Amino acid sequence: MNNTYIQKQIQQPTWYLIDAKSKNLGRLSTFISVLLKGKNKVKYTLHVNPKIHIIIINAQYIHVTGQKKSQKVYKRHSGKPGKLKQETFEHLNKRIPNRIIEHSVKGMLPKNSLGRQLFRQLYIYPDTQHPHIAQKPKIITFT
């Protein structure tokens, strides 16, 4: 009989830096979620956290196709009657540009404790400055 390989927990975290300037939102989010889950690794295991941390800079310059800048609506609800808040992509991008990529990537991660753990390993900044220089992240060029 064949033995099933079970990966042990990874000790050393890997840090990546991605520039989101003029990148397509959906394609970038898919790429990030695949990296966070570790599906690009040879020893990918479904239930193991690969300890990959991703830093995204220039989040305010993200690109969307078509009329989504004016038509895409982000909703949030406080739980109280009549307290549904709605805002367009343009307005949210001016107010909190990080929230757009966070919302997109979070929807592509598993809906369980591992997904929440992976989401905490994502760091998004609206411009080029970030406080993770000491981790020496590897720069990834995404086309």
From TrEMBL:
Keyword annotations from UniProtKB, A to Z: Chloroplast, Plastid, Ribonucleoprotein, Ribosomal protein
Places the protein is found: Plastid, Chloroplast
Record has Glycoprotein as a keyword: no
Primary residence: plastid
A single MF term (Gene Ontology): structural constituent of ribosome
Gene Ontology annotations for the cellular component aspect, listed alphabetically: chloroplast; cytosolic large ribosomal subunit
GO biological process, alphabetically ordered: negative regulation of translation; translation
Keyword Cell membrane: no
Pfam entry (one): Ribosomal_L13
PANTHER family: LARGE RIBOSOMAL SUBUNIT PROTEIN UL13M, RIBOSOMAL PROTEIN L13
Protein name: Large ribosomal subunit protein uL13c
Organism annotation: Kappaphycus alvarezii
